[in-house]
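Annotated sample (chain length 195).
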Amino acid sequence: MVWSVIDAGNNFEKEPSAMTLNLKFLRVQSGMTLEQLAADSGLTRSYLSKLERGLSSPSIGSALKIAEALGTTLDRFYGQPDDHDPITIVRAKNGKAGDVDTHLSLVAGLAPERTMRAFIVRPTKTAKRGRIMSHHEGEEILFILTGRIELVIGKRKETLNPGDCIQFDSTIPHKLTQVSSEPASALVVIATKTA
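Output written by the structure step:
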């Protein structure tokens, strides 16, 4: 999966990502305007427009809200084939999981019947302007792969190092920020609660 990325130092845009292309395709296919999608997802029209143009990437919570509002699955949202094989494998590219140039890459849990989704998240040193704390249904496991990451969860603040792992109720607002000089990354696994 490739996400659209804008290099702040250059005035060029890489190829549109599968998520970028699929978001607009799925929205138009469902007959929704940006305003309707904004109302149904609880996100702003401006933010959704930025996602469609590849100028921003969604948080996990936002991706879940958009997929639900579109009546689709995360795999279709991220441009992955709809495959009902009970075993799914997402291969690394150049020995790295996900897209190393993006903030968030879906790496497992593509099939709609799965109750878990796995992402590689690469937080930045400074929180992006306007990025609020994330919260969504389910439970979350965060396993630090590289660098040091500060997790703000509710009123609590924790600094996590490679190998550290935390599990929490993901309805509690939370945010990740890189606090090391080297790039940071973590494996995030979300399990949706079933009735």
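Annotation: Helices lie at 18-29, 34-41, 45-52, 60-70, 74-77.
Annotation: Residues 9 and 101 are 14 Å apart (CA to CA).
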